[in-house]
Amino acid sequence: MEERILLTECADATGIISKVTSECFNYQVNIVHQDQFATTDDNRFFMRTVLEGDFSCENELVQSIRDLLPADAKVRLVSRAKKRIAVLVTKEAHVLGDLLIKSYSDAMRGQIVMVAGNHPDLRDLVEKFDIPFHYVPTEGISREEHEERMCQLIDEANVDYVVLAKYMRILSEKMVARYPLGKLINIHHSFLPAFIGAKPYQQAFDRGVKIIGATAHFVTNNLDEGPIIEQDVIKVNHRYDARTMAKAGRDVERLVLFRALSRVLEDKVFIHGNKTVVF
């Protein structure tokens, strides 16, 4: 039997779960797992339902569920097939290397199909996994031309998600607007909203913090302020300088990005304003 994931978002109301599950029963699809959450500040309802069965009438199922829910309901039935991923990089290898291994070993429901970088340093690493690496230099061209070449590579690869794996360039508003919210994912090396922007480990050292962290978030036009997917921290002390903080932070960066990307690939993340609901 096939498996699909039913994603439901609407205004909260009495009986939503009953209506959805009853309609699934009417279409003879089995509920394997279900998570739901309702906000209290604006009364929004979110539900993720794993289904199995015959989906030859999937459009009718989705429409019948939508007809039973509040008028603003968003209902999607998505495949469990692996998603296609593009990764943008600069020079740092630890986050990219972890994702390449996870993709190679089927540890996530996604496949890296292309890596592009503004430096050639990571080509050898990427090509060990038989994945195309595209070097797009910035010298001699404008920022707009460089981004257009990057976007062409992304579009030609027909990917579902673009991961900025320590890609040390700020995307322009034009490039961000080219893709729907939720397609671009970034790993930032601080526990946001602390230490936005460049050199967060130096900022953390200057401030004398006792924890450092990493944040995976969706990209918006507000630098490092997009909806947060996943965060984590580790302890540091007075013996750490900015360099040793950066070294210690590499593990938490790769773990946070992998956990965030895994949840996105499993369709466990709803974007709600500038927040997320993560099942």
From TrEMBL:
Domain of life, source organism: Bacteria
Organism for this UniProt entry: Anaerobiospirillum thomasii
A GO molecular-function annotation: formyltetrahydrofolate deformylase activity
CDD domains in the record: ACT_F4HF-DF
Pfam families, sorted: Formyl_trans_N
Keywords: Hydrolase, One-carbon metabolism, Purine biosynthesis
Pathway: Purine metabolism; IMP biosynthesis via de novo pathway; formate from 10-formyl-5,6,7,8-tetrahydrofolate: step 1/1
GO biological process: 'de novo' IMP biosynthetic process; one-carbon metabolic process
Gene3D superfamilies: 3.30.70.260, Formyl transferase, N-terminal domain
Record-annotated active site: 224
The name this protein goes by in its record: Formyltetrahydrofolate deformylase
Catalytic activity: (6R)-10-formyltetrahydrofolate + H2O = (6S)-5,6,7,8-tetrahydrofolate + formate + H(+)
E.C. no: 3.5.1.10
Job of this protein: Catalyzes the hydrolysis of 10-formyltetrahydrofolate (formyl-FH4) to formate and tetrahydrofolate (FH4).
Domain ACT: from-to ranges: 5-80
NCBIfam families: PRK06027.1 (NF004684), PurU (TIGR00655)
RNA-binding recorded as keyword: no
Similarity-based family: Belongs to the PurU family.
